[in-house]
Known about the structure:
Elements: H1 3-72, H2 75-79, H3 90-106, E1 112-116, E2 122-127
Antiparallel strand pairs: 1-2
Amino acid sequence: xxxxxxxWHKILKTNNAKRGLFSFIAFVLFIVLLVVVYTLxxxxxxxxxxxxxxxxxxQLRAESVFxxxxxxxxxxxxxxxxxxxxxxxxxxxxxxxxxxxxxxxxGIRYLYTATKNEAGELIYVVDGLEKSTSIFALREVKLSPK
Length: 146
């Protein structure tokens, strides 16, 4: 084989190898791009569905707790609790105990009853937490606006 043919053959072989490597790298990058785009699309769709199902589940839980509370208690049960000294009333203690039991049974972090005071601010009536808890709210304590 003459020298010129041998050089030409090496150049073509080297270019084919470079082209092959370039094609392989381009193919891998294209596949990675497809996987990233597909993942982002799935994440966007599923995160919306997960959020909606979480909201729906929480609404159902809240409705079931409300139904349970409305069966156990009436507005009259809470009207006589006007001051912190009423927290020693046997009915108050019973309601507080039942709220705590429902809170624990339903897996709820906070369960309490509230009313508006003369200034129109929401205040606690009966807190469903244990009285020994550091965040237990006394009667007449204003609820945070959160």
